[in-house]
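Support request from a user on the community tier.

User writes: "When I paste my structure tokens into the form, the page sometimes reloads and wipes my input. The last time it worked, I copied everything first. Here is what I submitted, just in case something in the input itself triggers the reload:"
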């Protein structure tokens, strides 16, 4: 990456961080591109160089959030590995996102804006779906005989609920982000419950 690329990436990140803070504080409708510019400590020309409108900026934040989840949860079932280890790896990947201050800041923004602006929420609905990855692993492990899951989609929701009950919703409601040690315990407990319910041995 050249020095110019590094500079551009830094400015882009500054604008995204400033926009997340502005949207959280004011909501999408009341958010101001002028205030975002001031928060980011860049010129208005720089902001519009990357984002032609407030809507495009919000959509970029949603896309960034989606990319982080998609990249972190890019896992598929491996028939040569024990399913407990694979479920642990998948839960740890989700847990890593849930202990990221940046990810959780964006999550708070998206959820609060969904409540304030259902129309805007509808435009990005379905872009973030970690349940699919969990369900596919449970489905493939069942077909291979390592698990016995009649309803993979429902079981995936249960698995995610075990993780989010301690590591996501309390944070969204203003609690502290879990430490790595705390998240490790949540992961271990969630995997143990899944194995107890769906394991074949």
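"...and here is what came back when it finally went through:"
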């Amino acid at each position: 990456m050249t020095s110019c690329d590094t500079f551009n990436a830094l400015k882009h990140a500054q604008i995204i961080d400033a926009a997340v803070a502005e949207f959280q504080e004011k909501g999408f409708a009341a958010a101001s591109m002028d205030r975002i510019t001031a928060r980011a400590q860049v010129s208005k020309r720089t902001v519009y160089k990357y984002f032609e409108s407030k809507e495009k900026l919000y959509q970029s934040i949603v896309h960034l959030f989606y990319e982080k989840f998609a990249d972190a949860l890019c896992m598929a079932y491996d028939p040569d590995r024990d399913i407990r280890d694979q479920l642990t790896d998948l839960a740890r990947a989700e847990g890593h996102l849930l202990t990221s201050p940046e990810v959780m800041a964006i999550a708070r923004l998206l959820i609060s804006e969904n409540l304030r602006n259902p129309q805007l929420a509808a435009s990005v609905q379905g872009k973030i779906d970690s349940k699919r990855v969990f369900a596919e692993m449970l489905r493939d492990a069942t077909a291979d005989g390592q698990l016995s899951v009649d309803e993979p989609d429902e079981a995936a929701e249960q698995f995610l609920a075990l993780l989010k009950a301690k590591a996501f919703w309390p944070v969204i409601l203003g609690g502290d982000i879990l430490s790595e040690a705390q998240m490790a315990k949540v992961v271990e407990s969630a995997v143990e419950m899944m194995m107890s319910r769906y394991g074949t041995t």
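Agent notes: The reload is a front-end session timeout and is unrelated to the input. Residues 91 and 161 are 11 Å apart (CA to CA). The radius of gyration is 19 Å. Escalated to web team.
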